[in-house]
Amino acid sequence: MKRDLKFFFDPRAIAVVGATAHADRGGNNLLRNLTLGYKGAIYPVNPKYDKIMDIKTYPTISAIDGIVDLALIFVPAEQTPGVLRECVAKGVKGVILENSGFAEVGPEGKALQDECITIAKNGKLRLWGPNCMGLIDAKNQYVFSFMTPSLWHGLLKSGGVSLIVQSGLLSAGFLFTIMSHNTLGLAKVCSIGNKCDITEIDILEFLLDDPDTKVIALYLESLSNGRRFFELAKSSNKPFVLLKGGKSAAGAMAAVSHTASLAGNYQILHGAIKQAGVLEANDFSEMMDIARVLEKGFAQKNNASRVGRVAILTYSGASGIVTTDYLEKFGLDLAALSPATIKRLERLSPDWMPIKNPVDYWPAMEKNGPIAALKEGLSALYADPNVDGVIINLFAGMGAWSFDLLELMGVIKDRKKPILTWLIGLKDTLEPARIRMEKAGWPVFNEIHRLVKIMSTILQQR
């Protein structure tokens, strides 16, 4: 049964248990992050202070003179059961345990975690974590996490990708990487750690109804309920991208000490993932790349029985050849261009230039100018019914190469087929061009092999 989790994502009031005036400590970061975005009531809890950051501070949860929907807890693990009992007595609905020292450290920690679960269950209190970095809502600028404020404030970009990450520092690392490189926009980031109560299933059910979430990317070391996960994935109109930790025997052992997870049999899981339509990533960057392409609205190819047919538009014969090599490696085919497309391209090119895929547009560019040749070439390839996806090789430079890349992409009026760009160029022109393309919804890559791998995944070949 799906349960309401609004008190986690949009609480009316939040208590910070373990708040402190000491800068750069987790309890201080939690409080400061709330003041930078959260609009509800904030109640610091620490018996050592009357005020922290000019905010009235309470000795205990029970002393707070107002309702509390959510408590963020950052105290030593052994103090947690007592705090949870106070939360139950106060009527708190949800707790995010951002402290460590529970099942991930061994039997004693497991016993402590079990005690916390019992208290919460008996008191109808929901637990998120422990051993996690909490929750972030980029659109509302809610940061219910102890991450350092200076690393996110002013940089958190709203978008359509939500992350569910069974890790703490990894979720922060994702955020810092994404924000500093203008890679993609985020909806929600959920670090769930040991997931002693709230699991990926609870959060998935919430995100599937979340209007801000278009794509869901997950790093998981175990599945709490495999059957329910695959039911949600198969019935969802939002793509799932999964990076599974603990695929190898050694990785599965490492998962036990990281988040107390039993990783399970990956070979069985892999087959189920494919049947459910979940797109699988092999590393963190690949997970982000798949998610950012899907966020831009490109349709997934659901017919996995037919090899994906790709057209390549390239300014260089060599880059076209290398791209073709990777198509074969990742299970894609060069598209056989239709007669109508060949005729369109022949009108662009000198008489001596044969038209074939990959399409080398350098002679057409010399004949017609770069932007005219590229626009007509891209338009023709995209319209070809024999083409499932298009790869463009471009150079961002000076002189004849200083045309507006967004003018080129303007010939595409829908997102029925993925269009991915390999972009190289001069240092001073490459990065601004990449950022403009990404912001306008056109995925850019600096490595051909990664681009082709993502194209293969989007076309659901592997």
Q: What would the keywords be for this entry?
A:
2 domains; Rossmann fold; 462 residues; seven-stranded mixed beta sheet; 17 helices; 39% helix; six-stranded parallel beta sheet; alpha/beta
Overview of the molecule:
- This protein has 17 helices and 20 strands.
- By secondary structure, it is α/β, with parallel strands linked by helices.
- The protein folds into 2 domains: 290 residues, Succinyl-CoA synthetase domains (Rossmann fold, 3-Layer(aba) Sandwich); 150 residues, Rossmann fold (3-Layer(aba) Sandwich).
- The strands form 4 sheets. Strands 9-8-11-10-12-13-14 form a 7-stranded mixed beta sheet, sandwiched between helices. Strands 15, 16, 17, 18, 19 and 20 form a 6-stranded parallel beta sheet that branches.
- The protein is elongated.
- About 3% of the residues have low confidence.
Q: How do the strands and helices of this protein lay out in sequence?
A:
Layout: H1 6-9, E1 13-17, H2 26-35, E2 41-45, E3 51-52, E4 55-56, E5 70-73, H3 80-90, E6 94-97, H4 107-122, E7 126-128, E8 134-137, E9 142-144, E10 158-165, H5 169-181, E11 186-191, H6 200-208, E12 215-220, H7 226-235, E13 240-244, H8 249-259, H9 266-276, E14 279-281, H10 284-295, E15 309-314, H11 317-329, E16 333-334, H12 339-348, E17 359-360, H13 362-368, H14 370-383, E18 389-396, H15 405-409, E19 419-425, H16 427-439, E20 444-445, H17 448-458
Parallel strand pairs: 1-2, 1-5, 5-6, 6-7, 10-11, 10-12, 12-13, 13-14, 15-16, 15-17, 15-18, 18-19, 19-20
Antiparallel strand pairs: 3-4, 8-9, 8-11
Helix pairs in contact: 3-4, 7-9, 10-17, 11-17, 12-14, 13-14
